[in-house]
Specification:
alpha+beta, Alpha-Beta Plaits
Length: 99
């Protein structure tokens, strides 16, 4: 069975403060949560995942800015190897809203 929501990690390095803020706000609107200053994490459906590169193209400057969206597995037990994060920091959502 195909998963409805996929866990993703979005990392970006954006020069312009205004563009960086807009990018963070748009990613939050998709339901992603900040993990670090320029790293967002969460679960997206297929359409939302396809929207991320479109947001990159709309807001970021070629040559100056960089961004990547990666599928991740931080929510699984042992999926995260890091420092400073607790066991529940990458927990999958209990439920998804359907509008």
């Amino acid at each position: 069975m195909r998963e409805v929501f996929r866990e993703v990690l979005v990392c970006y390095d954006v020069e312009d403060d205004k563009a960086r803020k807009k990018l963070a706000d748009r990613l939050k609107d998709l339901g992603l949560e900040p993990v670090q200053k320029s790293v967002m994490w969460g679960f997206l459906n297929e359409a939302e995942e396809r929207e991320v590169p479109r947001i990159f193209k709309e807001l970021l400057k070629s040559g100056a800015d960089r961004a990547v969206v990666l599928r991740s597995d931080l929510a699984s037990e042992g999926g995260a190897a890091g420092f400073g994060y607790g066991p529940g920091d990458f927990a999958p959502p209990k439920a998804h809203e359907i509008l």
